[in-house]
Amino acid sequence: MSAILQGAGAATSLSPFNSIDSNKLVPPSRSSLSVRSKRYIVAESNVIKSFGSGLITRRSKPLIANAVATKRENAASSTSSKPGHELLLFEALQEGLEEEMDRDPHVCVMGEDVGHYGGSYKVTKGLADKFGDLRVLDTPICENAFTGMGIGAAMTGLRPVIEGMNMGFLLLAFNQISNNCGMLHYTSGGQFTIPVVIRGPGGVGRQLGAEHSQRLESYFQSIPGIQMVACSTPYNAKGLMKAAIRSENPVILFEHVLLYNLKESIPDEEYICNLEEAEMVRPGEHITILTYSRMRYHVMQAAKTLVNKGYDPEVIDIRSLKPFDLYTIGNSVKKTHRVLIVEECMRTGGIGASLTAAINENFHDYLDAPVMCLSSQDVPTPYAGTLEEWTVVQPAQIVTAVEHLCQ
Amino acid sequence: MATSFSPTNLTTTVSLHGSQESRISLPIRLSPPSSFLGSTISLSVNSPRKLNASRRSPIVGVQEIVKQKKPTNSLLITKEEGLVLYEDMILGRSFEDMCAQMYYRGKMFGFVHLYNGQEAVSTGFIKLLTKTDSVVSTYRDHVHALSKGVSARAVMSELFGKVTGCCRGQGGSMHMFSKEHNMLGGFAFIGEGIPVATGAAFTSKYKRDVLKQNCEDVTVAFFGDGTCNNGQFYECLNMAALYKLPIIFVVENNLWAIGMSHLRSTSDPEIWKKGPAFGMPGVHVDGMDVLKVREVAKEAVTRARRGEGPTLVECETYRFRGHSLADPDELRDAAEKAKYAARDPITALKKYLTENKLANEAELKSIEKKIDELVEEAVEFADASPQPGRSQLLENVFADPKGFGIGPDGKYRCEDPKFTEGTAQV
């Protein structure tokens, strides 16, 4: 079985190696570092000081049977030994929210249809009955004003969770989010904190049309003073929700419309997830795949195919979109030397673009290949099913990209 | 026409049912507005607007209540109150004059918007508030901060951009914040502060109804006539009336939004009428007369404290200077300026105090002298204060700095093994 890749060679010599397909590898020289053609530089002389020994042992890695991490590996930070309870992602969000509202009477929810209707995606179901109409406030349709109201309430002592019925609607609140939410802590010289959580479903759904299928992570990421996280499983949805509510920073929590019905078993006892931490979904050796939200599942699907083809991808769900967890990502890059970013955000100015820049800036020396970024197309999401499918990144494209990078 | 302070002529009747009796005539320009741009309704008094009969709500115009309630003595204020009001207005005026001087000497930069002429509104409202009540303002916020209790030193230092400013030099003229005095800013975009004020009022209501604390705090939101064409204003009027929030919306209608006359930009220039459309009383008051403003303010604040909901108060006022210190102010008619200069609120209050034997010239002079010294001392303090150091640049971006990627040693955290120690305390 020739599906064994070798990473960057030893610091001193270029050892010959078997490649999968035809031997496209050329003996690298320092000058060919700048040539980024289909042939990728695999070994660099005296660049990496301490990694030589670690890489040679890769030669005899056995085939990894299990492409998708097991549940135990998934809930890596879970310390529970007794079985938890199974629930869907939106129920996990609700559970997190309810626990925080029980714990701190200053936590309140504001949004359209969050109260009596129970939330358009049922995340706040039953909360209005339990906590009352003022704590779970049904607002009129005025995003800018009720986001501002949430910010004013946060400045004066409450901890509101502002729900946008769809993340796209928060474009109407951009004035308040950018000017007040992000800035007021700084502009007031640190006097006022804005412990607000802005959450809502976003992303490309099933033929919802252009305006309801927006990927807004990139629009918010430049705002100074805002923290952004994206949840992808019931476990981290609940954990991130709780952490976001307890954080003193304004946090934007991105959920995805298509992930609300994911089922998973989560621990019974209380836990939170760190807001700045990335999640190791599947450890590997050959390539680092960075992803978040729904694309995680496309990546895992592609990973199955990749494993069958003999690759060993390391999949990291970055979770924290601002700031990036460059610690986890950095360690991974130092191990695998190849990075593929798979995201649903747009190509131009997206999260992937920022992440590529950050990785290139910080880990340039550790890279054997240019960072590749698969994003969705820079188009308004079309309605037609086929077109919509081609807008986002599909598993087949991920497989091709990995093969490309790992030649 | 000099304003008279006698109680019978206190305010004009503004009823909610549309018809207007004696209205203070709007200081219109001599030529009517063009038919295309601006108001197409005639500004004469004889065009009553009948509200829909079904809209007849039990909310009575605030001024009606005030009018009925004639004080037993003919004076509206006591001597102490009068002196407090006078001192506050003199402080506002002197401070702003000093700002202009300092700006032209190159001590402060950027956009500085002065409040000369509008002091009656700030003093009239804010001197009725307690320390825990909140005030939200716009970029013309120096005097609101001063009236609320922020020291002249802190405001002047902030304008100079020094560390000792109320926002450590990070906010500037348009962002005066004070947690201690509950001054919630200072916002540069118009209308941006109104939702924040609504939020502060929401917190008061929340504390009372959910947390069962004894909270009677009200919020006063100040903004201008230009803001009244902005969506955020209407959205907040709706929510405030809907949830019966303890907030008072104060429109400082000085008729000009930089160079845009209020009449040219608003289809119906009578802003107080927009209150009843949302189910709250709308009141129009002479904003050049601090005592009238104070009477209306008392009623509005009491209403809010009792839990009866918001009020919209339109104060007809005027700014003696340009929109900002960079504005040449060429567009406004000299006759209009002269007319309002004759109604200077400070002169009027001084006249009232002396005529009604509440204070004599010497006392007022001593107040003026005291304020002069205070403002001078504030300038000296600000001059002597240090400028912010480099390390202050990245402080306070996040309340919880672990989230920023900059470690405590000031270096970027990607190599820090402890980086992912959690944000929240469990």
General description of the model:
The complex is a heterodimer of chains A (407) and B (426). Chain A is 31% helix and 16% strand. Chain A contains 14 helices and 14 strands. Chain A folds into 2 domains: 84-267, 3-Layer(aba) Sandwich (Rossmann fold); 279-406, Rossmann fold (3-Layer(aba) Sandwich), CATH 3.40.50.920. Chain A is globular. Chain B has 2 domains: 74-384, Thiamin diphosphate (ThDP)-binding fold, Pyr/PP domains (Rossmann fold), CATH 3.40.50.970; 389-425, no CATH class. Helix content of chain B is 36%, strand content 8%. Chain B is built from 13 helices and 9 strands. In chain B, helix 1 (62-68) packs across helix 10 (290-306), helix 2 runs antiparallel to helix 4 and helix 6 (193-209) packs parallel to helix 7. Residues 1-72 and 414-426 of chain B have low confidence and may be disordered. Chains A and B meet through helix 5, helix 6, helix 7, helix 9 and helix 11 of A and strand 2, helix 6 and helix 7 of B.
Can you give keywords for this protein?
heterodimer, A: 407 residues, alpha/beta, Rossmann fold, 2 domains, 5-stranded mixed sheet, 14 helices, disordered N terminus, B: 426 residues, 5-stranded parallel sheet, two-stranded antiparallel ribbon, 13 helices, 36% helix, disordered C terminus, thiamine pyrophosphate (chain A), transit peptide (chain A), oxidoreductase (chain A)
